[in-house]
Every structure is written in structure tokens, then in C-alpha cells.
Amino acid sequence: MTYRSMLTILTLAPATLAAQRLARQVDDVRDGTVRFSYAARSGVCGDGRETVRSGSSFTVMPSTFGRGHSDSDLCFAGPVRVAIGRRGGETVSFRVHVGGRWNSGDDVTDLGTVGAAEAARYLFDESLRASGNNAHYALAGAVFGDSIDLVPDLVSLARGRDGTGELRQRAVFWIGTYDDDRASRALHDLASDDALDENIRGAAIIALGRDDIADDDVAWLRALYPKVSSKLRDDIFLAVSRSDNPQASRWLASIITDKGETAHTREQAMFWMGQGRGPTEDLVRLYDRLDQPSLRSHYTFVISQRRDDKSIEKLIDIAQHDTDRDVRHQALFWLGQSRDPRALAFIRDLVTR
């Protein structure tokens, strides 16, 4: 055994032994609820109920997760609170919250505040044994914990056969919530590994699409693009669209106007360009480069989602001047859906003319 291996074992031993001790305390309760609390890692906060944020990532426990912003303005920086349901000596449920306080209740065994590392190690191991939403709760509770780096464990879960495909994808999502170089490298490795399931690779690509996605990551994804399937290309469009660098918007436009790409690919690139962070002016300029009526019809939907002055002006222009009748009708439809006063006035003028 090498010195480094021995050092790793000695470093991990305290958390592992403490996790085993915590597991025994939970197992000692045959029926009822066991609960405990621990410190949340930096950047993790919650509303005390189901919603938890970590940077630009959020989850509404147990099944909704993604990028963006939640509807809740409350966000408490811990503690992480875990409630475990026990019946007949078996664990039957997990519930995880960040922030807030426990309600009083009967048949509750409260272990108080425990070490974050031991709680995270215990919950990670439990996520591999649990199923369904219980596995998702346990994995989330592990990732929320302070004082432990679970990136290597999450990578092993993503690559391995333990857990369902959905849990493995969730592991990739959680890797993306660690804002460090090792997590970024892990996502690159997962995304580029041809031996992995495409759902895992796609989850890694999407995880790279943080609100603050680095220009280097955008360049890396663009280089990966020609080597992957249509499904993974769609995921690359989503990730690149999160960049506010004008080059990202221009690259998406180049895919949209490339006649060598499939209609599906061009439409997907257009959709994510519309959903992205580039200015509406870029979308307005794109219209004149669209050679097919089907693309221009799709364009009317894409630009309608911007809901700003320039998008309304462009839709009015298309409704008046596009050479294809169906495209003009689509523009009118989306103008009507916008309920913008100028759009409605334009439609009234057409009807009464």
C-alpha cells in the first residue's frame, strides 16, 4: 500500500466511522421518526420546506430540479434537516429540508445536531439502497452537507450500475452545483465519454450550462458538437445559450442558417437562441437569413417568447411583409397571444380595414 493510499484511508476513516455510528442510531429506532440536523455547505439555502437553491441551480424536492430561479424569496443558509420514517425496523421514508424549524410531534427520536460529513456519508450510502423519491431525498441531503467533497462519489454513481438511471442523472446534476475545477473536469469527462449512456452525457452537458458558463466551456462544447448525436447536440444548444458572450449567439445563428444541418437541428438551435441571453437584436437580424418558410414559421414562435418591444415590432413586420401566407398567419397568431396593446391595435386595424 502506498503512502498516498494510506493517507486517503486515514482521512476518510473519521467520517466513515461516524456515518456508521449514525446508521446504528437510526437502526435502533424500530418505529416512528428519526430526525437530525447538520450544517449546509456554502451557497446552499432553502425556504424550510421543499425548495433549495445552490447558486443558479434549484430543486423543489423531491422531483423538480434545474437552472434558474424559484418563486420563493425566502432562502435560509441552513441547517439541513432530515426526517427518516421507520416501520418494523426498516427505513420507509426520507424527507429533507434546508432552513426552518421542526414542528413538535409524537413518536419522534431527535438526534439533534450531527456532524455534516457523517450525515452526508450516511445519506449518500442510503441513497444507493433506497428507491424512488426516497433515493432522491437521501442523495440531495448528502450533497447539501458541509465539510465533505462528494464529487468523486457522485462521479462513481454516474458511471456505475448502482441506482436507477434517473438517480445517476441526478448525481450529474449535483456535480454541476460544485463550483470548482475538479467538478468542471468531471463534467467534461462524462460528457465526452462515448461509452456512457447518452442521458448521462446529456446531463453533464446541461450541467455545464450554468448562468456563468465560462467562455472556455462554450468553446469546448462547440468543439464537441460535430462528434455527437442529434440528441446531444440539442443539449449543447441549451448549455451554450446560457452564455452572454456574443460569440455564443453568433455560433447558434451559424447552425440555424447552415443548409447542411437537418431541419430539426436548425429549429432546436433557433429555439435555444431565443431562450438564451443574447439580445433580441440578434434574433431580429436572423430573420432575413432564413431560407425556408418552415423555419420562418418556427421563428415567429421563438421571437414571440421575448415579449419585448423589438420582438413585437418584428412580428408586425412579418405579418405585413413575409412572402408566405402561412408564415404571416403564424405571426398574427403570436401577436394575438402576446396581448401587447400595439399588437392588438394592429390586428384590429386588419379586421376593420
Distance between the termini: 88 Å
**Which quaternary structure do these chains form?**
single chain
* Helix count, DSSP H or I runs of 4 or more residues: 16
State the strand order across the main sheet: 7-6-1-8
**Topology as a string of helices (H) and strands (E):** HEEEEEEEEHHHHHHHHHHHHHHH
Q: Round the mean pLDDT to the nearest integer and report it.
A: 92
User: What fraction of the residues are assigned to beta strands by DSSP?
Assistant: 5-15%
What does this structure look like?
The protein has 353 residues and is an alpha+beta fold. 56% of the residues lie in helices and 13% in strands. The chain contains 16 helices and eight strands. The strands form two sheets. A four-stranded mixed β-sheet has the order 7-6-1-8. A four-stranded antiparallel β-sheet has the order 2-3-4-5, with no helix packed on it. The N terminus is likely disordered.
How are the elements arranged and paired?
Blueprint: H1 3-27, E1 32-38, E2 44-46, E3 51-54, E4 57-60, E5 64-67, E6 80-87, E7 90-98, E8 108-113, H2 116-129, H3 132-144, H4 151-159, H5 165-175, H6 181-192, H7 198-208, H8 215-224, H9 230-241, H10 246-256, H11 263-275, H12 280-286, H13 293-304, H14 309-321, H15 325-338, H16 341-352
Parallel strand pairs: 1-8
Antiparallel strand pairs: 1-6, 2-3, 3-4, 4-5, 6-7
